[in-house]
Amino acid sequence: MPIYEYGCVACGKHHEIIQKINEPLLTICPACGGKLEKKFSLSGFQLKGGGWYKDGYTSSEKTSEKTTPSTPLKKPEKSGK
């Protein structure tokens, strides 16, 4: 269940309330009975593990391979006149 954040217009208190998605939003402050306004906040959702980001979350074996310098490829010389 998501956590919704509300702010009371009357008393200025901040409330974090766990609600189901299909429940109606709260409109009355539980502390003073004033008007509540829903606040928008960033979520704590993170994607971790292999496959989400090619270079973000790798195992220690793959990390060590990336940090070793590779030898540059030599371009073939063109045969001239």
Which terms summarize this structure?
81 residues, mainly beta, 3 strands, rod-shaped
Question: Which secondary structure elements does this structure contain, and how are they paired or packed?
Answer:
Blueprint: E1 3-8, E2 14-18, E3 36-39, H1 60-67
Antiparallel strand pairs: 1-2, 1-3
How much helicity do the residues have? under 10%
Average pLDDT: 76
Tell me the structural class. mainly beta
Order of helices and strands: EEEH
User: How would a crystallographer describe the biggest sheet?
Assistant: 3 strands, antiparallel
- Low-confidence segments, given as residue ranges, are none
Outline: rod-shaped
β content, as a range?
15-25%
Cα Rg: 27 Å
Helical segment count? 1
Instruction: Note the gap between the termini.
Output: 75 Å
What is the β-strand count?
A: 3
Side-by-side strand order of the widest sheet: 2-1-3
Describe the structure.
With 81 residues, the chain is mostly beta strands. The chain has one helix at 60-67; strands at 3-8, 14-18, 36-39. The longest helix is centred in the last third of the chain and has 8 residues, at 60-67. 4% of the residues are buried.
